[in-house]
Write a structure and sequence with these properties.
The complex is a heterodimer of chains A (296) and B (252).
Chain A lengths: L1 H8 L10 H36 L5 H5 L13 H32 L3 H14 L3 H16 L4 H25 L3 H9 L4 H12 L1 H16 L26 H9 L4 H31 L6
Chain B lengths: L4 E10 L2 E11 L4 E5 L6 H8 L9 E9 L2 E2 L6 H7 E4 L11 H11 L5 H14 L3 H4 L13 H14 L4 E5 L7 H14 L4 E5 L3 H7 L2 E6 L2 E7 H6 L4 H7 L5
The chains are: A mainly alpha (296), B alpha/beta (252).
Chain lengths: 296, 252
């Protein structure tokens, strides 16, 4: 009797066995997904492995601490270019990150209108401008008035390239913050600008930083915008208004030269550049993770 | 101490759509007033007019007179000033996800420039105690994010956050709609205690809840306040046929 009651309570449903076709498709799709991951990762690792293979032999203390030797002399290094790249990127970040985040805040919090649409459109166009053109703009804006190639001009060129990426990712990340979070702050008597900075932006921090790092990594390897802004320099230079060496420029110069020694150094420079970018991105990620609370 | 609220000829709009029609109501200080009515009848819009959150929605606007204590809400009072005296608890718990439990409660004071550490500690403990959450979180105040708590705890955290700025009025927009019966019970108990210090306006879909916690009840229908009276009267002997139909479950 008991068994019968149970049978009445739980209606019998005939679940058909999963068909062969469904199982095949299931496995095939999983396989395709895995394959795309491989396709994406293979070029990355291939490039990195090839750089290590070609470049690691030329990296030594001299390469990391000395300036380039005159043509024909062996040895020398790219110390001035490593430092120069860091200086130019620091200037670019100091200019580009606040402006980009500011523009993103405007687009998300105040730009839900026609004016915002215009800014959004211009930002997307700017994102598509060839980097060499950006270099020419910085040449006109900074180099001509100063009558000097300079780290500042290089930084300005790279900053112009960072702004649209940072602005649009910041906007997207801020839009993901629920309106309820903003209203919670308004409800406590917090003003709108304070809510934007201390609540909305703070809630979106990790996403905004991802955008900043994407923009940073993208411009860190740029050569074209630096050709007639930072210009390059064979010697140490500590002034931001003087021509400044950059790794990408040095790699470019050495790679198109006819000397084997310079080719080897170009490989080594490329390896150093990519390691620096990875290190910078990783350091920021770790710092962000360290500051995140349990359950957030 | 709580203060009374008077509302005269309140009309609220979303763009061209009118959501509230000529609402008049007097809320007594240090009492709980419940607002009931079917979905979309304007209860939430109404309490959002009391702390001027309504106007933060694009194209939304308000006409009429609202007085909270001695403050004229729509005449010469800044929205931020007003909201420091009128706390709000929302339908869905909305703690600040990147802040610790402590910072969530202290947020209202800190963001308004208050930074005396010792006093903040006191306010946070007192607010969490008043919200019946202190014992559950006192060991993880700084370690855990507000978003890491359970739903019921999050809602009590939001109540503590609202209490920390020491408001005179507490607006609650269906504070228990996302909670289980045990958490709901805790929050109802809380409302009972909070009445001694605050004036409470609570929107609810749950008529038993209105009967349990509120001395006064208002019934909204299609943006109009149909009836406003003592709770017993609304539920046992309403003057309006529509109120009777609603509270006896004939519609809505």
């Amino acid at each position: 009797m008991n068994n019968n009651t149970a049978a009445v309570l739980v209606p019998q449903i005939n679940v058909p066995p999963i068909s062969l076709r469904r199982r095949v498709v299931d496995h095939a799709m999983t396989g395709i997904a895995a394959l795309t991951v491989v396709v994406v990762l293979v070029p990355l690792f291939a490039i990195f492995a090839y750089l290590v293979y070609k470049g690691i032999g030329s990296i030594n203390i001299a390469f990391l601490t000395q300036t380039p030797k005159p043509v024909g002399e062996a040895g020398g290094g790219m110390a001035n270019a490593i430092v120069g790249s860091m200086v130019i990127l620091a200037i670019a970040s100091l200019l580009g990150v606040p402006l980009g985040i500011g523009a993103g805040i405007f687009l998300s919090e105040y730009g839900r209108n026609r004016y915002g649409d215009i800014v959004r459109f211009i930002s997307d166009v700017l994102n598509g401008v060839p980097s060499i053109v950006v270099g020419i703009v910085a040449y006109g804006l900074v180099v001509l008035p100063q009558k000097h190639f300079s780290a500042l001009a290089g930084g300005v060129a790279l900053a112009i390239m960072m702004i649209p990426t940072i602005a649009r990712t910041t906007e997207q990340m801020l839009l993901l913050v629920p309106q309820a979070i903003r209203e919670a702050a308004y409800g406590l008597g917090v003003s709108r600008w304070r809510t934007t900075l201390s609540i909305t932006l703070r809630t979106a921090t990790s996403g905004v930083i991802t955008g900043v790092m994407l923009a940073f990594a993208r411009v860190a390897g740029e050569t074209a915008p630096l050709l007639f802004t930072a210009f390059g320099n064979q010697y140490w230079n500590w002034k931001t208004d003087q021509p400044t060496a950059a790794l990408s420029l040095q790699i470019f110069t050495y790679a198109i030269s006819p000397f084997d020694e310079w080719h080897r150094q170009a490989w080594a420079g490329a390896l150093v550049l990519i390691v620096l970018i990875v290190a910078a991105v990783a350091a920021v990620r770790i710092a962000v993770k360290h500051g995140t609370l349990a359950g957030a | 101490m709580g203060v009374g609220i008077t509302v005269e000829h309140l009309n609220a709009f979303y763009g061209k759509t009118q959501a509230l029609f000529d609402v008049n109501i007097t809320v007594l200080a240090n009492h709980a007033t419940a607002l009931i009515g079917p979905s979309g009848c304007g209860k939430t819009t109404f309490i959002r007019c009391l702390n001027r959150l309504h106007e933060t929605i694009p194209e939304a606007r308000v006409e009429g007179k609202v007085n909270i204590g001695d403050l004229s809400v729509y005449n010469g009072t800044s929205a931020t000033q007003l909201r420091r005296r009128v706390g709000m608890v929302f339908q869905k718990p909305n703690p600040f996800p990147t802040m610790s439990i402590y910072d969530n409660v202290a947020a209202g004071l800190k963001l308004n420039g208050f930074s005396n550490r010792k006093q903040l500690d006191e306010v946070v403990e007192k607010s969490l105690n008043n919200a019946a959450l202190w014992d559950e979180v006192k060991d993880s105040l700084h370690k855990q994010s507000g978003a890491g708590l359970s739903g019921g705890q999050q809602q009590r955290l939001c109540i503590a956050r609202a209490l920390a700025v020491q408001p005179e009025v507490l607006l609650m927009d269906e504070p228990c709609s996302a909670l289980d019966p045990i958490s709901t019970g805790k929050i109802e108990e809380l409302i009972f205690q909070l009445k001694e210090q605050y004036t409470i306006v609570i929107v609810t879909h749950n008529m038993q809840q209105a009967a349990r916690v509120a001395e006064f009840t208002g019934f909204f229908l299609l943006g109009k306040m149909i009836e406003f009276d003592r709770t017993e009267k609304i539920f046992t002997n309403p003057s309006d046929k529509r109120t009777e139909d609603y509270v006896t479950g004939r519609f809505g």
